[in-house]
Amino acid sequence: MSLYNIKFLNQQELSEALRALGADARALPFFENRREVRALYIPGVDTRGANVIKQEMLSRGGDAAVHARAVDFGVERSDCIVFGTKKQLLFLAEKLSTMPWWGFPEIVTDIKNALAAIDKKISRVALPGGRSIAFGERTQIMGIINLTDDSFFTDSRMGGSVEKVMVLAKKQIEDGVDIIDLGAESTRPGSARVPEETEKQRIAEAVRAIRGAFPDILLSIDTTRASVAAAALEAGADVINDISGLTYEPELAKITAEFGAMYVLMHMRGTPETMQTMCDYDNLLLDITRFFEAGIEKAASLGLERSRIILDPGLGFAKNYNQNLFILKHLEAFDSFGLPLLIGASRKGTVGKATETDDPKNRLEGTIALTSLCAWQGVDIVRVHDVYENKKAVMMIEAVRNAEYA
Length: 406
Hints:
This protein has 406 residues and is an alpha/beta fold. The protein has helices at residues 11-21, 28-32, 47-59, 86-96, 104-118, 162-174, 196-213, 226-235, 251-259, 284-301, 321-329, 349-355, 364-376, 387-401; strands spanning 38-46, 63-65, 77-84, 123-126, 132-135, 140-146, 179-183, 218-222, 239-242, 262-266, 309-312, 342-343, 381-384. The protein contains 14 helices and 13 strands. It has an eight-stranded parallel β-sheet. Helix 7 (196-213) packs parallel to helix 8 (226-235).
């Protein structure tokens, strides 16, 4: 007898396999609940609750990792890693919901919300000017245009020349870009700020020019300043891409909401001048998750709907080489939010170190590899300098992901 191992990437593929072997179609929900073992990281659980969680999971065929001293109450609290199928985890949540102790009500809510969010669904969000953006269908390409004189990749520097911007925008659109990201202030490590009026003027002029020539293309604005965001949105922008994650000027969320635009909430610490001295984390993924939670709450308090937020873990921003790679290895950590994910790794130092290329001009191949990795993991948007090459890589990955069961 011959057998083989198979991982079903989604419910559709599992459904096709069941149909091919002649299984009862009504069994699909039963098997879907067992298709994949999930591991949920739950921090800071009361030790009494941690022991209950472990026993409840064991009784259902799952398991939970807790602190070695939890069993004899040698610690007051323990992080938990809970292992189980979706059905086992839902059973756990239902059981814990009958116990109003040890923080269980909040844990139950978090488990249910995470499980509901992990399986991405197709959604469409309305944008200004009658435009819209869809998530969950494929990985979209965000093309970079820098209206600066000092961005780390020299070929992306347009300075204040609207003519150069228009040439590059036209090329990116012809190459299949989905969103154009305009920035007039470099955020490379060690960079200093540009005058606010200079940034505002360059951005507004570029947005007006591109919007006039290409009324349907989506425009994102890379800025941390509320005045720049307001000017750009007034000129016809659709997305505000804030590297500070509302830590500089929180009113960015209010302005974004007023225009009915999207907002990119990126994780970082410090400023571009200081961030590379701030790479110490107790738990990198947990710290980023908590930053996102706080940012989403802050945005909501300022009137920005959760459905208008895109998350970006901020590769290279207060992260060292290994931390950047670890994030790319575990992008699933952010699935529990149920929000679109953006990754910007194009030609960055991590690519250079991994591929032993000092000059950003020689980092295209490494960038394409990361774009392919992101597309395979279902990342919603990749931010890149080279639209054509990365677009083709995504198309190839999507073709493989969408292959029918054979």
